[in-house]
Every structure is written in structure tokens, then in C-alpha cells.
Amino acid sequence: MKPLRLGVIGLGVGEQHILAARARPGWELAALCDFSPEKLAEVSARHPGIPATADADSVIDDPSIDLVTIASWDNFHHAQILRALEKGKHVFVEKPLCLSREEAKDIRSALRAHPRLRLSSNLILRRSLRFMQVKALIDAGRLGDLYHLEADYNYGRLGKITEGWRAEIPFYSVIYGGGVHMVDLMMWFTGGDVTEVTAYGNRLATRGTAFRFDDCVTSILRFRNGATGKMGANFGCVYPHFHQVSVYGTKATFQNTLEGGKLVVDRAPGAPVEAVDAPYPGCQKGELLGGFMDGILAGREPEIPADAVFRTMSVCFAIEESARKGIPVTVEYV
């Protein structure tokens, strides 16, 4: 069989897509794209022999390309996904999927009109070896019934939001750009839906800079089964880039800390603590793409199917709305 062909749009994190694709049999890298001439030249020099262009539409419209990966700026995702689906392309998109509930509904409708096509998003924490170990412990019943989860996305890279494209685009959300990972992780751990959220945000850490949006958002989540959650997206923090997670169950508590992962199984002071020692993060940014490509060849659903992406984004939309309005918001699933 002829290899399927892949085009990569956006060559920042998209370079990780190139590396993942090179390792996949049955695929051919057909196009690299970035609207920055400097970025295009820099990445193309590291990956010679692959056609390169600054025109994303030409990649999407190329009838010989079967899959496009979209790692462009967030505000381009919606239009590029719609165009790709309309042109019969499978789509793998960096988070966030898009920037509003209305855009998500557009994408959902386009995907329903092309049921043979696959779509997924790079919610990569599901491939973290440590969090996969935690999920296995939960599924085995080691934590008992989960009743509360806390997940903080500590970005710790202030310059990336006060300078560069995040400060330039018409709208940037720390929930969509980082908190989405924590929402997805909590929903994956619990296997359940969030019904209502309450959120508050501020922009104190970036006061006086070019960044115009909330740099810190804290939200309280209510799950359908009665469990609660707290999710924070803290982009201005003086802290390493880190995913701080606590999962409270009736039998045990998991915590991911800078000192390592641990499972607390006894309430007594000084009781032994079990190490949850799978590597963290223990994954490469392109790992989900590799599995997505394998799934297309095998005719199976991706590891994170489109429905899971829409559900996670639906919760994020509600958090963003609540932070903007200052009121509780019922989650409307797309």
C-alpha cells in the first residue's frame, strides 16, 4: 500500500509532531508549514527534503494529504480544522481545540458530516507514565471512591505570556492553554462529567505588561456523582512548570509534588507512604500523535476520541464564562 501523507502546520511544538511522524511506518511527511519565514527556514533545515510553505491553506487543500496536524496559534485552530474536515482530512490539533462553545459546535457539526474522519487533541498528560500509574491504581480500587480532586497547572514561564504570540492574539485563555490539561486529567481519573463550575481570575502577576487577560484562574467543579474538584491555571507563578495533583479517595490519597509522587494509605501520623515512582512527566509531546496515526491505519478510534475532547473543552468553556461573569455556570456539553 502507498503510505498515507501528513502535513504539519505550525512548527513550534509542531516540530514534535515531525519527530513523532518520522517514527511511524506507513506514513510520509508531505509538507511543513509556518507563516514565520524564520521559523520555517530554521525547522526545515533540521528536516531537509520535506516540502515547506508559509501557506497553510495550500497544505490543507492538497488532495494527496490524508492528515493535518495543527499547531498554529490558538486563534487559527477553528478555521483550519473546519477547512481540513471539509477537504476530507483527519485532524490532530494542539490544545485548545478552539476558543468558544460556538466554534466547538461548528467543528462538531463538520465532524458529524464526515463520519469516516478522525479528530483528536494533544491532551498529553494522559500519556504521562506517572499519571497512567495513578489511573491504574484508581481502576484497581486502591484509592476507593474518589470524592475530591485538586489539579494545578503551574506554568512558571512568565515571559511566554508577556511577550510573543500569547500577548498578541485577540484573546488568550490560561484555561484553554493550560488548565485544559488538568480538567481532562480529572475527568479521566473519575470517568465522570462535571455539571457545574464556579471560577474567579485575576491578572495581578502580569500587571503593567503587554498581556491583557487573566493570568491566574481558580475554579471549583462539581461532578455528577457528587465529587468535588479544584482546578487552577497559574501562569504568572514563581514556580517550575509543574502539574501539582492531589486525588482523594476513601481508601488512599495520591499527591504529585516536586519531591515525587506518593500514595498515602494510612491516616496515622508518621505512617509509611508508598512511592508512585513512574517517571514524570515520562512522555514526549508527540506520543499521542503517533498512536493517532497508528489508529488511522488500523481503522480504530484514537486514544482520546473526539467526544472526550469536546467534553473537556465544554467544561473549560464553562470555567471561562464563570470567571468572566463571576457566577456559577452549568456545563453545557457540546
Fold and architecture overview:
By secondary structure, this protein is an alpha/beta fold. The protein folds into two domains: 121 residues, 3-Layer(aba) Sandwich (Rossmann fold); 177 residues, Dihydrodipicolinate Reductase, domain 2 (2-Layer Sandwich). 34% of the residues lie in helices and 25% in strands. It is built from eleven helices and 15 strands. The strands form two sheets. A nine-stranded mixed β-sheet has the order 14-13-12-11-7-10-9-8-15. Helix 4 packs parallel to helix 5, helix 6 packs parallel to helix 9 and helix 9 packs across helix 11. The longest helix is centred in the last third of the chain and has 20 residues. The chain is globular, with a radius of gyration of 20 Å. 44% of the residues are buried.
Entry summary:
With 334 residues, the protein is α/β, with parallel strands linked by helices. The protein has eleven helices and 15 strands.
| Count of DSSP-assigned helices | 11
Q: How many strands, what sense, and barrel or not for the largest sheet?
A: 9 strands, mixed
Number of strands: 15
- The radius of gyration computed from the alpha-carbon positions, rounded to a whole number of angstroms, is 20 Å
Mean pLDDT figure: 97
Order of helices and strands: EHEHEHEHEHEHEHHHEEEEEEEHHE
Q: State the share of residues found in helices, binned by percent.
A: 25-40%
Give the total of domains: 2
Overall shape = globular
Query: In terms of structural class, how would the helical and strand content be classed?
Result: alpha/beta
Which stretches are poorly predicted, pLDDT < 50 over at least 5 residues? Answer: none
The first-level CATH class name of the largest domain: Alpha Beta
CATH topology term of the largest domain: Dihydrodipicolinate Reductase, domain 2
CATH homologous superfamily label of the largest domain = Dihydrodipicolinate Reductase, domain 2
CATH architecture of the largest domain: 2-Layer Sandwich
